[in-house]
Design goal:
138 residues, alpha+beta, 7 strands, 44% strand
């Protein structure tokens, strides 16, 4: 069976490292699916969930708040400032972040404040969607 080595790394720690049959994640231009011997690629990753189908058939989910993806024929690396294992996602915390971002949008005093708040809202919404996807698969 063909596998590809996958590393998902946050600014603080290695979140996942192991062999996989398939990886799916939200790329800058749309959803990406990566199998072993994929063409080399470097692209940005949008906030969302990384789905890793491991060699034993189990799935691992990791939420990333954006980042960079590097694909080599035998290795996939996802670098993200923020990455959280699906089992560690906290719905209450994500909803609080969404509400805070919505409030920040209402109170934005400049274009920069508005852009920052909109970015935070997009990340919170993606985290909530990733959590729902993770809970549905359980």
């Amino acid at each position: 069976m063909n596998t590809i080595h996958v590393d998902v790394v946050s600014a603080e720690e290695s979140i996942f490292s192991g062999e996989a049959r398939f990886v799916a994640l939200p790329g800058e231009a749309g959803e990406l699916g990566i199998y072993p011997r994929h063409t080399p690629l470097i692209t940005r990753v949008k906030p969302g969930s990384v789905r890793i189908e491991m060699a034993d058939g189990k799935e691992e989910f990791v939420f990333v708040a954006g980042g960079i993806l590097e694909v080599q024929p035998d290795c996939v690396t996802v670098l993200s400032d923020t990455a959280v294992r699906g089992k560690d996602l906290d719905e209450e915390k994500a909803n609080e972040a969404r509400q805070a971002a919505e409030e920040a949008i209402k109170n934005a005093k400049s274009d920069l404040d508005l852009a920052k708040a909109q970015s935070e809202l997009a990340i919170a919404a993606a985290e909530i969607a990733a959590l729902r996807k993770y809970l549905k698969k359980k």
